[in-house]
Write a structure and sequence with these properties.
The chain has 498 residues and is an alpha/beta fold. Helices cover 23% and strands 27% of the residues. It is built from 12 helices and 26 strands. The longest helix has 17 residues. The protein is globular, with a radius of gyration of 23 Å.
């Protein structure tokens, strides 16, 4: 049996469509909170009626500036109410929002602005701006609430709806253009990953500019009529347990690194929490087990990327088997390809690929042609079990060479996740002398761990040729602003044993 699953079709998008109109289709009929920003001592809340009114008023304000459909707006905003209002308001008006991280330096954001050529930069005063001639706009929610509603801009569902940037872990970030239709690909995720219903209160621990937060933390709850909960900027992960308890969250969404930090804190009883969602990087089985033991709830992983919404996952109705990421979501056409571009037999490692007909797939990278051929190759290595469960092996270019064999760093790291003292670890190759490479494990821990224990741990779980030859403690593994491991940066941290 080959590693290919085709569960299409998705429902076709209407000929005249708007992403923001789809997300807020139920807003006028819902008398409840849409969004709450959680502060340590107070909360900011928007009702669905206020969210709709502000979105429409914001669209009016943008159009009065003379902007035309298709113009791009660079967002330089933090975790504030202005962020979702400008994001949806722009799309409502047929404009194209471009979210960016508030942590970027002036030089970094200048490079990104040059890629997207914005017609307007919407910015809060405390956030650095690019060296770019586009006009500036300061958010004014009070003024927007008084403006008449702009009409919903309807058009081709394949037209550009928004632009996001890749994380840049492999080099310069790429500008990813997504169509309005991308929101339709998320419908299957509501049931087959998130288990999301109208009665839920979903707390997402990420920054609003991150695609994971935008989709799972805001757009999905609003499409379903649920309530989105977002911690205020600067909230440490160790404060999340008390926020979960106080906000009566029913679902938590975060990256694995955040779950690790939560488990280091005091976790009060969370009687309303039903389960957690994990994305952004691979979820170690040991971390999933620790979360279950501490909270009595499960974690469900999903795999996606900036270029495509999540396409495989575990879910409350179909949890992923031990060690696997999950199953292909209904409506998707997925394969694991060999170097020849054809699906490999199940049980054989290959590269995950998504059909270029998938509605959640990007229109393309700005400045580059759209994806060609039948498959978009994701760069993720994986295997598919006979029952269709997929195990993620890491990035294809991250696979390590040990004695002529290809080894997944994820497999090596999993051997150490239960070792007391280690809070995170990452495997890679290092070059102790020119021309010689060895496997190395870098780990986070309060203090260095006896190498005898590390070697014993490796010997119990790994074949000899998979065992690291070098162990090194770091105060923190190199990560992006969204918490993704930058594996390529590890080799530069290597220190030869004295």
């Amino acid at each position: 049996m080959l590693s290919e699953i085709d569960t299409r079709p998705f429902l076709a998008a209407p000929k005249a469509f708007n992403l923001a109109g789809h997300v807020l289709a139920r807003a006028a009929s819902l008398d409840k909170p849409a969004l709450t920003i959680l502060h340590p001592d107070r909360d900011e809340t928007l009702s669905y009626a206020e969210l709709l009114r502000l979105t429409q008023g914001c669209a009016t304000a943008l159009l009065t500036l003379g902007l035309r459909p298709g113009d791009r707006i660079l967002l330089r905003l933090g975790n504030t109410l202005a962020f979702p209002i400008l994001y949806l308001g722009a799309i409502w008006a047929g404009l194209v929002p471009v979210p960016t991280s508030a942590a970027l330096t002036r030089a970094e954001i200048t490079k990104l602005a040059a890629l997207v050529t914005p017609s307007l930069i919407a910015a809060e005063p405390s956030i650095l701006l690019p060296d770019h001639p586009a006009r500036r706009l300061t958010p004014d929610l009070a003024a927007w609430a008084k403006l008449p509603p702009a009409p919903l801009h309807l058009g081709d569902p394949d037209r550009e709806g928004y632009v996001v940037f890749t994380s840049g872990t492999s080099g310069t970030p790429m500008a990813v253009s997504h169509a309005h239709r991308a929101i339709l690909a998320r419908q299957t995720m509501h049931r087959h990953w998130e288990g999301l219903t109208e009665t839920d209160r979903l707390l997402h621990a990420g920054a609003l500019n991150w695609t994971y937060t935008l989709g799972t933390g805001l757009l999905d709850p609003w499409t379903c009529g649920a309530t989105a909960l977002i911690p205020a900027a600067g909230t440490p992960p160790t404060a999340l347990p008390s926020l979960l308890h106080r906000a009566e969250a029913t679902i938590l969404a975060a990256a694995p690194g955040v779950y690790r930090q939560i488990l280091r804190a005091e976790v009060p009883p969370l009687p309303t929490l039903r389960h957690g969602l994990s994305a952004g990087e691979s979820l170690p089985q040991a971390l999933r087990n620790q979360w279950r033991n501490r909270t009595g709830t499960d974690l469900h992983e999903a795999l996606g990327m900036s270029e495509c919404s999540t396409y495989l996952s575990g879910s409350p109705s179909r949890p992923a088997p031990v060690g696997a990421a999950g199953y292909v979501q209904p409506g998707r056409h997925i394969a694991i390809l060999g170097d020849d571009g054809h699906p490999v037999p199940r049980g054989t490692a290959g590269e995950l690929a998504v059909s270029t007909a998938d509605p959640g797939l990007m229109r393309g990278y700005l400045g580059h042609p759209p994806p060609q051929g039948a498959w978009f190759r994701t760069g993720d290595a994986a295997t598919m079990a006979p029952d269709g469960a997929i195990t993620h092996l890491g990035r294809k270019d991250d696979l390590l060479n040990a004695g002529g064999f290809r080894v997944s760093p994820v497999e090596i790291e999993a051997a150490f996740h239960d070792l007391p003292g280690i809070t995170a670890c990452a495997a890679t190759q290092v070059e102790p002398v020119p021309g010689t490479t060895i496997l190395a494990l870098f780990y986070e821990a309060p203090c260095a761990i006896d190498e005898t224990l590390l070697h014993q741990c490796a010997e119990k779980a790994l074949a000899r040729w998979k065992q690291p030859r070098h162990y090194q403690r770091l105060d923190a593994l190199p990560r992006t602003g969204t918490g993704k491991l930058i594996r390529k940066a590890l080799a530069a941290r290597y220190r030869r044993p004295e």
